[in-house]
Amino acid sequence: MTSIPDVGGADVVAEDLRAADGRIPGRRGRATRTRLLECLEGMLATSSFRDLKVTDVTREAGTSPATFYQYFPDIETAVLAIAEQMVDEGARLRACVTDGSWRGGDAYETASGVVDGFLRFWEQHQALLRVLDLASLEGDARFHVMRVQMLNSVTVALAEVIESVRKSDSGEAGATAGALVAMLAHTSAHQAGFESWDIHVKDLRNALTNLVFWGVTNRKPPS
Amino acid sequence: MTSIPDVGGADVVAEDLRAADGRIPGRRGRATRTRLLECLEGMLATSSFRDLKVTDVTREAGTSPATFYQYFPDIETAVLAIAEQMVDEGARLRACVTDGSWRGGDAYETASGVVDGFLRFWEQHQALLRVLDLASLEGDARFHVMRVQMLNSVTVALAEVIESVRKSDSGEAGATAGALVAMLAHTSAHQAGFESWDIHVKDLRNALTNLVFWGVTNRKPPS
DNA sequence: GCCGTTTCTGATTGGCAGTCAGATCTCTGT
DNA sequence: ACAGAGATCTGACTGCCAATCAGAAACGGC
C-alpha cells in the first residue's frame, strides 16, 4: 500500500544506509557509493575476488581509499550489498518450483523448468555466486546465511511439493529436496567444467530433469 | 622392479623434491620440511585457510619464515603437498563404485555403500576438502585440477556402470554420473549444514541412496 | 680440529589495509 | 552573490605481513 515512488531511478532509496560517521548520505554521497559498487561489480567479473584490492577499486572509481571506507567497513560488506540484490532475484528459483503443476503429464515440464531456472540463474550470476561460495567457505557468516537462505527457500518449496505429491513423511521429503537442490546448485555452478569433459549441457539438462522428476514424483519419466 | 627400500619410514622418499636453491635436501632438511607440513595441517583444522599466516606456521614449528620459503614457494604449494596425499586416498571413492555389484538385489546395497563412502570421506577430511574447494574457487589451477581429477575418477567409473547397467548411450550416462557425483559431493560437504535445518543425516543418507540407485538402474528402490 | 656443505635466521624491503585531520565542495538562507 | 554549516573527499600516515638476502650456525667426512 505505502508504495515508494521511484523518483530518482536509484535502486536503493529508503534504506537506513549510513556512512561510517553515522550520518545519512545525501545525493552526492549516494552517487559516489553507487559508483564504487558499480566499479566493484565490474571488476568482480574479470578478476578473482581475493585479488581485488580496495586500492584498485577506488582507483577505477577515480577516488581514494578513505572514501571507500566512508561507505563500507570492508570489501566484503560492499560485495554483500551487490549480492543482496541477486539473492532477491533468486526468489525466481522458488517460483520455478511453486508455479508449475507436479501432477500428471505436466510434472516433467515443471521439472525441466526448475532445471533450466537453476542453470540460467547460475550462468547469469556466475561471478557473484562464485564470490558468495568463496566468502561463505571462508567462514564469513553473513555470506553463509545469505547462501543458505537462498537455497533454503527453494528447498522448502520443493520439500512441500514432494510431501504432497508422494505423501511421504516430511523428514524424507526434506532430505530428498535438499539432495536435489544440492545437485542442481553444484552442477549449475560447474556447467563450464562439465563441458570440458565429454559432458554436454543438453545431456546434463536431461539427466538433471530426469533425476528431479523421479525424485519428486517417484514415477518413471516419459522418454 | 627397481623397488625403493623404504628405510626411513618417511612417506616422501624418491621424489624430486628440491629446496628453493635447487639442491636436494638431506636428512635434517626433510625433517624440517615434514615438521612444517605437520604444523600446517594441524593449524588448518582449527583456523580458516585464509587467516593462516606463514609467520604463524613457522612460529608453531619453532623456526623462521625464511626456512619455510626454503621448502615451499608459498603456502598454497605446501597445502597442495598435504592435499595430494588425501586425493590419493580418494581412490577409495572410486572403489566404492567399482567394487560392488549393480545387478539385481545387490545394487541397492552398493548404492548405499557409495553414499556412505562420500559422507565418510568428506567428514574425515572436512578441513582439507574445504581448502581444496576454496583454492579451487579462487582460481588456483593446481587445486582445481586436483579437485576435478578426484571427482572425475569417480564420475567416469559411475558412468561406465550406468552405461552397462542401463544400456544407455554414453552421453547420457556421463551426464547422469556427473549429476549424481555433484549431488554427493555437495551434500557431503554440507552435512553439518543440513542438520541445522530439520534434515537428519539418516534421512539424507536414505534420500541420497534412493537417488543414486534410481539414477544408475532406473529401477524403483526396494522400500 | 679443519673445511666444504647444508641448513637456518635476523634484518630488511615493499605492498596493501585501514585511519585521521584537515582541505574542498555543496547548498541554504539572506 | 556570498557567508556559513555541513557534507564529502583526500594525502599522508601507521602497522601488518609476505617475501628475500647475506651471512651465521650446524653438520659430517677427514
Architecture overview:
The structure is a homodimer. In chain A, helix 5 packs parallel to helix 8 (about 140-165) and helix 8 packs across helix 9. Helices cover about 70% and strands about 0% of the residues of chain A. The longest helix of chain A is centred in the C-terminal third of the chain and has 26 residues, at about 140-165. The first copy, chain A, is built from eleven helices and no strands. Chains A and B meet through helix 7, helix 8, helix 9 and helix 11 of A and helix 7, helix 8, helix 9 and helix 11 of B. Chain A binds a DNA duplex (30 and 30 nucleotides) through helix 1 and helix 3.
Characterize this entry briefly:
Chain A is mostly helical. The first copy, chain A, is 70% helix and 0% strand. Chain A has 11 helices and no strands.
Short descriptors:
about 70% helix, mainly alpha, DNA-binding, about 220 residues, homodimer
Tell me the greatest interface. Answer: A-B, 44 and 44 residues
Principal-axes geometry of chain A comes out as elongated
**Overall mean confidence score, pLDDT of chain A:** 88
**Run of helices and strands of chain A:** HHHHHHHHHHH
Beta-strand percentage range of chain A? under 5%
Look at the helices and sheets of chain A and give the structural class. mainly alpha
Oligomer: homodimer
Q: Helical region count of chain A?
A: 11
Distance separating the two termini of chain A:
48 Å
Low-confidence parts of chain A, pLDDT < 50 over ≥5 residues?
A: 1-15
| Major sheet size, sense and barrel closure of chain A | none
What does the radius of gyration of chain A come to? 21 Å
Total strands of chain A: the figure is 0
| Helix residue percentage of chain A | over 70%
